[in-house]
């Protein structure tokens, strides 16, 4: 009888249910429609469908003109909103120069350039560099200022420019100050040399380097 009682108790012990499967993360909401691009809430196609119900394709019963009307009235539902406009290009200074007023603009223009570029810096502007501005493609970069000249300042912690890949650089009418170099003087030019050489320019496999009408101090 004791054995029967134990067996009965064993049968009465409930089994633990299997663990629930992990829940899926919620779906990301669709991106908001572009500003100024919206479906016409009053639109109905020839069959009475609204924008959200329309297939946005040519099907029996509608004409090409009616499809054009659907696409024009339902740009969000039909996925035909135009991409946002590109930001305007920096203004051109006289003589085809691009005028920039910040270190970030200067760096972005040079490091992203795919063709020759001429850059104008405002007189008396002061550009503090935290690292060398690099040019690594076979283009010609000209940076110029007028009057008392803009200042490019390495702050004693970095050289001003690093050139490679055939890049040529002309610096005109600038104040070039506090460029740090381990060795190599103002311009260090030679394949394989360390990028820490050259207080103003380190040129490794680069093109011509010209410094015209500029002052160099502490480099």
From TrEMBL:
<feature type="compositionally biased region" description="Pro residues">
    <location>
        <begin position="15"/>
        <end position="34"/>
    </location>
</feature>
<feature type="region of interest" description="Disordered">
    <location>
        <begin position="12"/>
        <end position="44"/>
    </location>
</feature>
<protein>
    <submittedName>
        <fullName>Uncharacterized protein</fullName>
    </submittedName>
</protein>
<dbReference type="InterPro" id="IPR011050">
    <property type="entry name" value="Pectin_lyase_fold/virulence"/>
</dbReference>
